[in-house]
Give the backbone structure.
Amino acid sequence: MSPFESMEKFPHLLVLDFDGVLCDGLQEYFQTSCQVCRQIWPDLPREKLDRQRDNFYFLRPVIETGWEMPLLLKALATGVEPAAIEAAWPAVAQTLQRQEQIGKSQLAPVLDQVRDNYIHNDLAYWLGLHHFYPGVIGQLNHWLQSPYPQWLYVVTTKEGRFVQQLLKNQKVDFPLGQIIGKEIKQPKFKTLEQLRVKHQCDGDRLWFVEDMLTTLETVANQPALEQTSLFLADWGYNTPDSRGLAKQKKRFHLLSLQQFSAPFSEWF
């Protein structure tokens, strides 16, 4: 930010989601989910999984946390209609978990193990499955070298070590202590509350960019975060319906990728 730019609208504390805000990992999600499905359900033919790639990409917005992805692929490969998943994924997921007697405690460790295996055995391939959205790497480097925001964080439901590896590959010198992943085992709103207190940040100087409307809605319902500026990344894993709802509510700001790389005064 230029010292001559209007200082009326800028964050002291800027918090960014990772998947769907900074990085597009659809190819990695699909490949990793295929590997998890083949480990947990070895009788599921690989060709049935492979045929669901486009449906999996289309339905990525229904997923809130990564451990659900193999469950989504399993549902598709065993004949659950994409329309039924889009309309009521939580109910479909719950039914499938009950039928298969499986849940987060079994799926999440296998997902992380598959990713770790890729990193240890074929790092270049794994990195190549990820694509950062246009302009975001340059913008991250700009913010890290600028006086505003004073504090920049990534808060994600992905394991922090995976985010570190991806940013390192882009030559982004992001402070490791400012990457907060699922390893802390708490919802994002709780992390935001803690960061606001830690940095003694006035409510309206905390800005949060996320691509899941449900996550923003949960944050908006927290009394301690009632003044937080909440942005829905319109380039991320969300639907036209979600973007339409965000536009209708004064509490949320629909953010474009062009705005993301623009001065903060242009975010509203």
Observations:
- The chain has two domains: 13-24+132-266, 26-128.
